[in-house]
Design goal:
The chain has a single domain, classed as Cytidine Deaminase, domain 2. It contains one helix and eleven strands. The strands form two sheets. A nine-stranded mixed sheet has the order 1-3-2-4-7-8-9-10-11, covered by helices on one side. A two-stranded antiparallel sheet has the order 5-6. The chain starts with 5 loop residues before the first strand and ends in an 8-residue tail after the last strand.
Length: 182
């Protein structure tokens, strides 16, 4: 997948706010059951100490009933950032704001789950981002941290943990007082 489509961003939270707007404004990206998923790569450049979003892929996976999917690219082509570290993928849901159990399953976990960048000294976590546009227009961003197995919602620019994955099948247990919507 080519890149960058968007960036540089100072944090994954800043990237997520912008990626949510980009991805959920694509044709069919917020149209409910008959909508389309788009996927992209999230990556980091130590040269710029910044995060980037690749161009989008709308190559669709198999549809079973209401299930939607797209193919997260497996490689990156960004000649401006030859030091790029792929941190994971991002995708929108046109029909709901929740990660699917397969999204959080052990079978789809990116390994290694943590990467140490020798240039900056940062320990980076692999993550999966999810974007959803509410009918009222608000864009919601969520992340699943593969290392900590925690789901967080982006609220007022900060990641708020809302639950933890409790098994290899991707079952999410929400924390007390937390939910997908604020």
């Amino acid at each position: 997948m080519a890149g960058p489509l968007a960036g540089p961003f100072k944090s994954v939270a800043e990237l997520a706010e912008n990626a949510c707007e980009i991805m959920t404004r694509q044709p069919g990206a917020a149209t409910g059951e008959y909508g389309i998923e788009y996927c992209a790569l999230i990556y980091y450049s130590s040269t710029e100490d910044a995060y980037f979003l690749s161009y989008l892929s709308d190559i669709q996976g198999t549809r079973v009933g209401r299930t939607k999917s797209c193919w997260i690219p497996s490689s990156l082509d960004d000649p401006q950032h030859l030091d790029a570290i792929i941190l994971g993928g991002g995708h929108n849901h046109p029909h709901n704001r929740r990660f699917s159990r397969p999204d959080m399953s052990e079978a789809r976990r990116w390994v290694p789950t943590r990467i140490a960048d020798g240039r900056t000294g940062k320990v980076l976590h692999r993550e999966l981002l999810l974007f959803y546009r509410e009918r009222a227009g608000e864009c919601r961003s969520y992340k699943y941290d593969y290392a900590q197995r925690v789901v967080a919602a982006l609220r007022d620019g900060l990641w708020v943990p809302i639950g933890a994955v409790i098994d290899d099948e991707g079952t999410l247990e929400l924390y007390e007082g937390q939910d997908w919507a604020p």
